[in-house]
Amino acid sequence: MSATTVVADTLLGAGVLAEIVCCAGVLWMRDVFDRLHFAAAGTTVGPVLLAAAVLVTGTSATSATVELIAALFLLLLLNPVLTHATGRAFRRLSSGRQP
Q1: H or E element at residue 10
Q2: 90 vs 33: CA distance, rounded Å
Q3: Within a 13 Å sphere around the CA of 43, how many CA atoms are in the beta-carbon half?
Q4: Phi and psi (nearest 5°) for 34?
Q5: What does the radius of gyration of the chain's CA atoms come to, in whole angstroms?
Q6: What are the 10-residue block averages of pLDDT along the chain, 99 residues in total?
């Protein structure tokens, strides 16, 4: 087993574990904002680790690497915006204020 394989397997395992913890957090939390916190982490931490595992192993196609980096960039760019908008919308609905 090469060092690249060990690193990729470790990153893959950490990414899957992060996703499992985030899913469990969404299921177990009672407050909407706590659930939103775990949902946001599930779209940030896990994908970064999984993408790192793919990049460590390397791909023969350059387009696959570019697509992976573009997808990861979009996740990291849009996740905070979506999380903030969802939390703000719930806060407005729960307080009774109309937009």
Answers
A1: helix 3-28
A2: 9
A3: 18
A4: -65, -40
A5: 17
A6: 91 95 94 91 91 85 85 91 92 78
